[in-house]
Automatic annotation (TrEMBL):
<dbReference type="InterPro" id="IPR045854">
    <property type="entry name" value="NO2/SO3_Rdtase_4Fe4S_sf"/>
</dbReference>
<feature type="domain" description="Nitrite/sulphite reductase 4Fe-4S">
    <location>
        <begin position="418"/>
        <end position="541"/>
    </location>
</feature>
<dbReference type="InterPro" id="IPR036136">
    <property type="entry name" value="Nit/Sulf_reduc_fer-like_dom_sf"/>
</dbReference>
<dbReference type="Pfam" id="PF03460">
    <property type="entry name" value="NIR_SIR_ferr"/>
</dbReference>
<dbReference type="InterPro" id="IPR051329">
    <property type="entry name" value="NIR_SIR_4Fe-4S"/>
</dbReference>
<comment type="function">
    <text>Catalyzes the reduction of sulfite to sulfide, a step in the biosynthesis of sulfur-containing amino acids and cofactors.</text>
</comment>
<keyword id="KW-0411">Iron-sulfur</keyword>
<keyword id="KW-0560">Oxidoreductase</keyword>
<feature type="domain" description="Nitrite/sulphite reductase 4Fe-4S">
    <location>
        <begin position="164"/>
        <end position="318"/>
    </location>
</feature>
<keyword id="KW-0479">Metal-binding</keyword>
<feature type="domain" description="Nitrite/Sulfite reductase ferredoxin-like">
    <location>
        <begin position="342"/>
        <end position="406"/>
    </location>
</feature>
<feature type="region of interest" description="Disordered">
    <location>
        <begin position="1"/>
        <end position="36"/>
    </location>
</feature>
<keyword id="KW-0004">4Fe-4S</keyword>
<dbReference type="InterPro" id="IPR005117">
    <property type="entry name" value="NiRdtase/SiRdtase_haem-b_fer"/>
</dbReference>
<comment type="similarity">
    <text>Belongs to the nitrite and sulfite reductase 4Fe-4S domain family.</text>
</comment>
<protein>
    <recommendedName>
        <fullName>assimilatory sulfite reductase (ferredoxin)</fullName>
        <ecNumber>1.8.7.1</ecNumber>
    </recommendedName>
</protein>
<keyword id="KW-0408">Iron</keyword>
Amino acid sequence: MSSPTRSSRTAQKGQGQWALGYREPLNPNERMKKDSDGLDVRQRILDVYAHTGFDGIDPGDLRGRMRWMGLYTQRAQGIPGGKTAVLEPEELEDAYFMLRVRIDGGQLSADQLRVIAGISTEFGRGVADVTDRQNVQLHWIRIEDVPEIWRRLEAVGLSTTEACGDTPRVILGCPLAGVLDDEVLDATPAVAEVVEKYLGDREYSNLPRKFKSSISGCSHHCTNHEINDVAFVGVRNAAGEAGYDLWVGGGLSTNPRFAERIGVFVRPDQVADVWAGVCAVFRDYGYRRSRTHARIKFLMADWGPEKFRQVLQDEYLHEALPDGPAPERPATDQRDHVGVMKQVDGTNALGFALHTGRIGGELLATVADLAEQYGRGRIRTTADQKLVVLDVPDDAVEAAVAALAEHDLLVRPSVFRRQTMACTGIEFCKLAIVETKGHAKELTAELERRLPGFDTPVTINVNGCPNSCARFQTADIGFKGMMVAGEEGFQVHLGGHLGFESSIGRKLRGHKVAAADTADYVERVLRGYLEHRSEGETFAA
Ligand code: SF4
C-alpha cells in the first residue's frame, strides 16, 4: 500500500475545503493556523515564553497554538457560571494552564506514572485527573515550568504534543490489550505505529478540527468506537484472520452523531496507512468555514460511508480494501474493565474506580508503588476515568484490593461510584457553566446512602456545559450544565447508550434540575424503574 496522498481535485467550492480550492482562511482559527503552524509554539515556549512569563505570550499563541502542546489557559477561580457567556476569554482566565499528558493506548509504567505524579505535586498543586480519553490532566501549571516538565516527561517517553488543538489527539486503546484471552487481537503495535509515524507530523497538524481516534481489539468495545472520529474495531474475517472494521464520523458535543461503518476489512499492517488516509481526507475535504460545523461527522453526514470509502481508496490509498464483517456483539454492555479480570498468563488485572477521575499527584505515586508491590509495575488508564493495575497473582488479589481500598480506590465499587463520570467543569474550564466533579462526588455518596444495594448498571454523566466532554448524550442519565432560574443546574437527557443498540439520550424539556436537587431527581427516576421493571429488564432497556 502506498502512503496516502491526494490525487485529484474538483472545481466545486463549498465549506472552505482545501481539496476544493479554498486556501484563504474563513474564520479566525483558520487564520491563526495559516499564520503559524500550531506546532511552532513549542520552540517559542522554550525560547521566549518560559522566560517572559504569562504576560509575554502572544495572544494567538495563548488562546490558540498552546493547545498543540497540550496547554489550555485555566479558568480564574471564583467566576460564577452565569458569567461564562458574558465575559471575554481574557477576563475568564488566570495566569495558569491546564496541561494534558497524552497516554496513547492508556499504557503506563510505574516509572512513567511517578513522573506524572511528581509533576503534579511539584508544579501543579497536587491536582491530577484521569480523563475519559485515557489522558492525565494537570492544573495550575506555570509557563515558566513547562520546559522542565517536558524534559521530565520526555525522559520517560511521554508527551503533551497534540494532546489538544486541531490535531490527531491521543489514540485510545483497550487498557487490557495483550493481556485478556477474549480479545480479538492486541492492537498495541498498531497504536504504537500510528503514534511513531504521525505524532507531530506537520502533514496532519492543521486539521479542520480535533480528530479523535481509537484502535482496539477489545471484545467489550471499551474504547467507544461509536463516538470517535475514526475507529478501528477488532474483527475476524471469513477466513478467520484478525483485523479491523473501520468506523468514521462519530462525535458528541452540540450535534451528536454516531460513527458509521465504512465496510472494509483492514489488516493490522495496514492500520497506520488507513488511519493516515482517513486523517488526510478530513484535512483536505473537512469543512473549514464554521468551527461548529467542522468535525469529520459533518462530512460523513453529507457524504455517507460509500462515498467516503470511494474517496479514501481512490484518492489516498490507491487501492481497494476488501469488504469486511461487522464487530460481534459483546457478551455484556459493561465496557469499563472495573473489577478483577483474569489475564491470559494466569495473573489478574484489577480495575478500580476513582471519584470521576480525580486522583491527585500523591495518590498517583501510591498507585505506582502498589502496581510494583502487587504486580509488575504496569498501570493502564481507561476511557471511563478509571485505572487498572495489571499482573497481580491470584494469592495477592485480595491484599491488593484491600490496599487500594485503603486509599478509596475501589475494585468493587457501588454502581454509582462505578458508573458516574464528570468533566472538568467550572473549577478549571473557561467554558463551564456549572461545577461538576465535586457535585458528582456528592451525588454518588447520596445515592449510595439512599439506594443501598442498587445493582443494575446505570450511567450518570455530569457535564459543565453543552460540549459533552463527559458524554451526557450517551449516559442513561445525562446532566448538561446550564443556569436554572438563576442558579447552577442541569438539563437532563435520558436514555443514552453505547453498544449494539446505541442511542442518543433524549432531552426532556421539562426536566431542568437545580444542582441541589439532582439526588432527588435521580432517586425518583431509579425508584420508578425499580417499581415498574419486569423480570431481567435493564435500566437501559
Ligand atoms: Fe469544559 Fe464543557 Fe468540556 Fe465540561 S463539557 S470540560 S465544562 S468544555
